[in-house]
Amino acid sequence: MGKNMRGENAGDERNNDKNDGGNFSGAGSGFSEEKIRQYQGKSESELMSELIKNVQNSKRGGTFDPAALEAFYQNAGPSLTAEQRKKLRNLIDMIK
Fold it and tell me: Can you give the residue range of the structural domain that contains 47?
């Protein structure tokens, strides 16, 4: 097995949990209650800016995990409206 940019085994199972609640980076940064509170009250454009910044940092650091992003979509989808699901799907497709 190869190493990723952080020197970890690329197949390290601890970062592959499909039900991790939004851990896009594979480094334990899932959506905790604290993170949810941090983003409450922000506008859509503020949230987009923050998301793009976080994704860029994860990609630069070699920790971006598209499978975790898909898992988040699958977990969050049922609690969203059709319009919200469509926006989230478009956003995920743009990020990948």
Answer: 28-64
